[in-house]
Amino acid sequence: MRVCLSLVGEQFNMYANTIALFHHALVDLGHTVRVSLNGLDPAALNLFLPPMAFRSRELLAHLADRRIPYGFVGVETFHGYAHHRRDEPEGDSADFRRFVADARCILCLFRQDLEPYRALGGRAVYARYGFHERVEEVRPGPERPVDVFFFGDVAGRPRRERLLQGLAARGLTVQTLIGAQEAPPALVRNSLIGMAKANLNINHSTHVSPQRVVFLSNNRLRCLSDTADDPDGYLESALAFERDAEFLDGCEDYVRSGRWRIDGEAAYELVRRHPMSRTLQAAFDETL
């Protein structure tokens, strides 16, 4: 089967890790896979991400007029008519209902999203973030001059600011790469990941943000994280701390103890339990 993974209306590097994971897994399954930015392939099953692609009325009209087969990847948690706490325009949107109902498949990265999509007539199936050896792209150095690294939005996220400042106050070298919306090139980010003894995930909502955790685990690096709702078990390969004080203590101990030298393989073995190719095969078997 031909598949087109199409990112619609977003900076590509924001979702590059997810796209790469899906791309390699689909190729393993024998599919011919194209990756596109704001494009589609009329002869392929087009998998759009993020779900907010439906906001493009031109895209919706084109899909309907040409009867182009498509699905989408649920990369943000979904609650009725809100994606990641962002209300959709016009609430009970006819455009959105049609986009969901006409999709050949909806690949949900969060189990909690299945029923809300199905309630709208969608062919939703669970497709948990998982493992693929080809997404290993970070080259950690044997001696790492950065104690702590965090990439993502910090401005307007007071808790993130507070925790990062707390680590710096303990004498740790803290490096950040901010501005997720600007999406710096992956190699810029990856070089800093490889220089750091500890790579952090600091959640920004009540649900865990899994992209960093899974990406780092695929790259033989243990992610240090706070906790949040995690019914999918994404934090199983991370070192997670429930309270802020425990997070600060745990990060400092992780850096100073030298645990970072030997801990990455354990995270890698845990994420290997969830091969992405097997997950997508089961998802397609159920929906297509």
Description:
This protein is α/β, with parallel strands linked by helices. The protein is built from ten helices and 14 strands. The protein has helices spanning 16-28, 57-66, 94-102, 114-119, 158-169, 186-195, 210-218, 244-257, 264-271, 276-287; strands at residues 2-7, 32-37, 45-49, 70-74, 78-79, 82-83, 86-87, 106-108, 124-126, 146-151, 174-177, 196-201, 223-226, 239-241. It has a six-stranded parallel β-sheet. Strands 11-10-12-13-14 form a five-stranded parallel β-sheet, with helices on both faces. A three-stranded antiparallel β-sheet has the order 5-6-7, with no helix packed on it. Strand 10, helix 5 and strand 11 form a beta-alpha-beta unit. Helix 1 packs across helix 10 (276-287) and helix 7 packs across helix 9. The longest helix is centred in the last third of the chain and has 14 residues, at 244-257. The chain is elongated and about 60 Å long. The model has no long low-confidence stretch (mean pLDDT 92).
How many beta strands in the DSSP annotation? 14
Instruction: Name the beta content range.
Output: 15-25%
Structural class: alpha/beta
Largest sheet properties: 6 strands, parallel
Mean pLDDT: 92
End-to-end Cα distance, whole Å, is: 11 Å
Helix count, per DSSP? 10
Order of helices and strands: EHEEHEEEEHEHEEHEHEHEEHHH
The general outline is elongated
What is the share of helical residues?
25-40%
Low-confidence segments, given as residue ranges, are: none
What strand line-up does the widest sheet have?
Answer: 2-1-3-4-8-9
Rg, rounded, reads 19 Å
